[in-house]
Structures are given as structure tokens and as C-alpha cells.
Design goal:
This protein is of the alpha+beta class and 83 residues long. It has three helices and two strands. The chain is globular and about 35 Å long. The C terminus is likely disordered.
């Protein structure tokens, strides 16, 4: 399975989680793939997440996780309307 596929599946899973459950799932995934996830984070710290070949940053864990999901989630292109 490619890193992009793994990332997309994980993004789908964590999209359905909220708050602490989402943060815990991301922390576990980062640690299980050999990364570091220091605790605790200050609330207004710049956080960088590198997971499954995708890097995203945000002010605080929640914003960084949301930005990571946005980067991984497929972007839907608007369809052209036939005239």
C-alpha cells in the first residue's frame, strides 16, 4: 500500500474523531511510524506533523491535525458546466 493511500485512509478515520480522541490517534500513528510526539504542547505553539509522507503545520495540535487532513484529503475539482 502506498504512503498516499495509507495517509488517505488514516485521514478518513481521524476525520470522524474529535478532540482528545483525534489527538491521541495522531500521536499514536506518529510514534508507531518512528516519529516523535512531545507532550504536552503549549496551546499557542507552532506544531508540525509529518506522517505518511505528508507534512502540515498549525498553531496548536488541533489546527495542525486539521491542516494535515486537508492536505491528504483529495481535492474535488469543480466540473465545467456545458453551455
Amino acid at each position: 500500500m502506498s504512503a498516499a493511500t495509507t495517509a488517505a485512509r488514516f485521514a478518513q478515520t481521524i476525520t470522524q474523531l474529535q478532540g482528545r480522541d483525534r489527538r491521541d490517534a495522531v500521536a499514536c500513528a506518529v510514534i508507531e511510524t518512528g516519529g516523535l510526539y512531545p507532550f504536552p504542547f503549549p496551546k499557542r505553539a507552532l506544531v508540525e506533523i509529518q506522517l505518511h509522507g505528508v507534512c502540515a503545520t498549525g498553531i496548536g495540535e488541533d489546527e495542525a491535525i486539521s491542516n494535515w487532513i486537508d492536505k491528504v484529503s483529495p481535492q474535488v475539482e469543480p466540473q465545467e458546466v456545458a453551455a
